[in-house]
Q: What sequence folds into this?
DNA sequence: ATCGATGATTAAGG
DNA sequence: CCTTAATCATCGAT
């Protein structure tokens, strides 16, 4: 495009298209004195100003005369050749790049995410509706999943409509570049390409534009559109990734466990406070009871342990409560019941099912805390109170702690000593806690 | 809007 | 794999 003035110049000179103008230009280039040049420019400007005065017919006739000039084809070819050598050789270098690995990666990913592939199912809206309609307990999960799918299909739709615009199909400049195009789908790329092609063909009547050059231009356009496509794919990938992280990252859709599950977990925790490492079976059982996964149980215990250890005081009340509960269920049958043989939690929330006192150490601890503060004793009843009394007695004998501060301090010897935690407990996951040797805990306590 | 509680993830160590 | 410790991101109450 930028060569236009020069080419026009060439035409003017070579073909005498505009006698007056050519004359002056020749004069201008030949003359060396500034005086004459200035005058030439003035003349040229004058002519340019008056060029619109010429009738259209006259211009057309002149153009026609140009086109039909006998020297035109030869000159045209020569000029094309020269242009080929000078201008086009510069950018002939980067042709036919190999398939971009990044593009392939993007394609693969889009395919894997179901964005690029064929539409599946009868429209995801229906699927989403169906999933949402199932309702019930699992509704939360499936609803979010369907929401995810709906969003994904939205992305997918945008992607496809956009992609179609930029897709390039069969623009075949057959033979000499004046060939016919076939199967032209109407989209931005093809429209633009044909437009440019037509424009260049039109101009090739007045400018030296070889068919080869048109072809090259087409390929340049295609490259540009390819890069647009690439960008589209890239941003689609990004969108999918964001969507994924938004919906599939469990952290982001965290739901608190329901109260019952928390109760069960807490009961297990506080009744095994000396060694709160449930075995694999225990975890499975807890998971089943709480309707959560085993790894969620593991997470819960991991979090609980660390948070309990970090701030025991904060958990006192909770500890009291669960310990008291355990104690109640244990004492209410007024028997030192041995464990149920399964690694089950002491008692399932609220029900008077399995009364078991996991170990006396824990009870001891719980009562210590009762001794300390804030326990109102409402539902517990007299037998607990008596135990409190007894233990208070014991405590006062052994340690001499008598105020609420003592309670929190008394927790630590349980197993968490100042040096760091339950670490001297038996190998965590290999111990099925309910079948523990009672003595060990006591010895722990006495430390 | 803010803030503590909480489930999940990550890094480091075994 | 397991753990701990730190951290993230959300929930839920205020």
A:
């Amino acid at each position: 495009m930028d060569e236009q003035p020069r080419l026009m110049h060439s035409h003017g000179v070579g073909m005498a298209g505009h006698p007056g103008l050519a004359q002056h230009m020749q004069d201008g280039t030949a003359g060396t004195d500034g005086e004459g040049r200035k005058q030439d420019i003035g003349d040229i400007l004058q002519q340019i100003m008056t060029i619109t005065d010429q009738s259209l017919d006259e211009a057309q006739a002149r153009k026609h005369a140009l086109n039909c000039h006998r020297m035109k084809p030869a000159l045209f070819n020569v000029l094309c050749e020269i242009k080929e050598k000078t201008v086009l050789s510069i950018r002939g270098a980067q042709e036919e790049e190999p398939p971009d690995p990044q593009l392939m990666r993007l394609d693969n990913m889009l395919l894997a995410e179901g964005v690029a592939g064929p539409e599946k199912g009868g429209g995801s809206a229906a699927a989403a509706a169906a999933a949402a309609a199932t309702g019930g307990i699992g509704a939360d999960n499936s609803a979010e999943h369907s929401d995810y799918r709906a969003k994904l299909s939205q992305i997918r739709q945008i992607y496809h409509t956009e992609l179609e615009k930029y897709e390039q199909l069969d623009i075949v400049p057959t033979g000499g570049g004046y060939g016919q195009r076939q199967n032209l789908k109407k989209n931005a790329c093809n429209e633009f390409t044909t437009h440019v092609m037509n424009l260049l063909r039109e101009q090739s009547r007045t400018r030296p534009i070889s068919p080869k050059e048109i072809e090259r231009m087409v390929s340049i356009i295609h490259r540009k559109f390819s890069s647009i496509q690439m960008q589209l794919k890239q941003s689609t990938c990004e969108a999918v990734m964001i969507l994924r992280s938004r919906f599939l990252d469990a952290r982001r859709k965290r739901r608190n466990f329901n109260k019952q599950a928390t109760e069960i977990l807490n009961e297990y925790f506080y009744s095994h406070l000396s060694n709160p490492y449930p075995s694999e079976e225990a975890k499975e059982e807890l998971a089943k009871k709480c309707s959560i996964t085993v790894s969620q149980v593991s997470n819960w215990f991991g979090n609980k342990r660390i948070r309990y250890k970090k701030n025991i005081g904060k958990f006192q009340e909770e500890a009291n409560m669960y310990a008291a509960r355990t104690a109640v269920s244990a004492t209410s049958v007024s028997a030192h019941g041995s464990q149920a043989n399964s690694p089950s939690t002491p008692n399932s929330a609220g029900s008077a099912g399995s009364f078991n006192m996991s170990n006396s150490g824990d009870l001891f601890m719980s009562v210590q805390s009762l001794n300390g503060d804030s326990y109102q004793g409402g539902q517990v009843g007299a037998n607990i109170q008596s135990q409190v009394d007894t233990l208070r007695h014991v405590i006062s004998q052994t340690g001499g702690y008598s105020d609420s501060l003592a309670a929190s301090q008394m927790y630590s010897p349980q197993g968490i000593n100042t040096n760091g935690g339950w670490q001297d407990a038996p190998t965590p996951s290999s111990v099925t806690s309910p079948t523990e040797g009672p003595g060990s805990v006591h010895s722990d306590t006495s430390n």
Observations:
- Chain A is about 65% helix and 0% strand.
- The two ends of chain A are 92 Å apart (CA to CA).
